Amino acid sequence: MGKARILAVDDQRYFRELIEGLLGDEGYLVRTAASGDEALRILEREDFEVVITDLVMPGIDGTELVQKIKERLPDQEIVMVTGVVDVKTAVEAMKQGVTDYILKPFDRVVLLESIRKILQRRRLRDEHARLVEENLEYMGVLSLFERAVALFSNLAVEPLAERLVEGLCLETRAQSGVLWLAEEPGAPQLRLVGARGLVRLDGEPERVELDEVEAAWCPGLRAARSVVAAMPEDADGVEALYVAVRARGETIGVVRLSDRLDGERFTPGDRAAAEKFCELGGVALHNAMRFQALERRSLRDPETRAYSRGYFDDAVRNEIQKANRFGHRFSVLRIGFELDSPRARLPEADELARRRALLVSHARQIEAALRGTDLLAAGDDGAFYALLPQTDSLGAGILAQRIREGIRELDVRGPQPRFANATFPIDGTQLEALFRVLDERVAQARDSLLVARPELMRSQSLDPVFDRMLEMGSVEPMEIEGQILRFVLEDVVRRPSDRGVLFLSPGARWLPELLETLQELRGRQGRTQIFVLAESEDREAPPQVSWLTKSRLDSRRPFVVYYGDGPAYAMVGQVALAATRAAIFQTADRALVEHLAFELQRELGVRLTD
Asked: What is the reported pTM?
């Protein structure tokens, strides 16, 4: 009697006979079908443990065949056979319920191992079902098993982590659950990815070392699958249940369950249920990590190492969900290049190769400036996009300066980058809104004064830059300057959660107004760094204010430059003490203000925290 019945679907006779021969030699009963339509007709009359289908076929292809089979037979085990170029499509098919995939050309070992694992899981499921039918005592086990098996239908790591925590809370009647998970199997550091119930997320560490968890939080977990231990921050001995999430012998995560619904301690039954649930959950999470890595590889340019725009958009949407849950900010940075026109003496193929080489070198320079948690993508418009988790506008600006300096050192004759950034939730709370702001800022950058007057960027000192800006200003009543100064200071303090940098050179004319405003703002905190260029005096001021008494800039010339999460703004005045009207220049040109802010940082020798 055969081991199992298998249906092989492929429009190419060679592969049908190959699969039939390989599996037939192992004792399996194999039927073949030359098309999706033929396979569906056979499935209407016969049952099979496994269906093996090719992805690319005329008529009903593999993806459509999977959909139709799952509509009729939701529990049918299906293996997809595909070529390397179809990996992205195969991953999408996995999300529809395909159990496994095999890359062409495949060998006997890979095929047999896949079938063996599928049949083993099927036998386990059938065995559990049989035991439940024989004894009602096993109904709870079946319920747990079904909920755990349902985890395998999800290939996204974060949603799967949430479902795992939710399922563990249901199985153990815990009101609170937190999951820390490795970025990839074998990584020593875990990150907070899932939480449910009565959990204060701001009180939980975002990243922890696995060794610290096993040694300090719950000693004994390294040798066991679960441990009941006291909460680390609780002095009254309130206990929590720690469960290891393992796959292939490696711990890839740790779950902490607490606040049992009836107030009682976790029982051995709770531990057994949690261990069983995590046993299957660990396999599901390991598969999700594997397919996430596979999806990334298939969507990443091998030369620039940049992801596709479609993958980038999905990553931004996931970051929006995490930022909403954990109260974080993040930024999206666009790096565009104005490639010069083709050189007359270069053949078209050589010109394309030159431009490609420039993009590759720029991409590597950008990636070198990014952190491990950042993500780089290439857009269809020739620009690069970077996702910067837990980064505000000022942090994105600091990163842009590092990238600009690196590219300038790399090739001073090449196209210079132009930057624009949008920050969640300041500039938008949805993907479309963030990219709409990016597009607006790209357009504004093209119309910036830095483009119309490039000498402003080429100047080695800000003194002549301020002089040229003042020449483009307007004559206003003297009191206007003081009103603007007060408004800018108050606006910065009105938004204490926004971060930025504010440079003030009050001169003799603005200094009294500045001191009066700082006196009124005393005791009010903010996240904006304020640098005041003025003579040293003993003054009480908010802790975020720094007095710079020695500067290469003319501290008599009044100016204000603010750049950060709020609107960008700069104002320059002239040294005029007796006049009732004076020339001032003011602008909200974000590209110009960003340039001024970082040039001031460089010229004054101050450090901005990113």
From this structure: 0.58
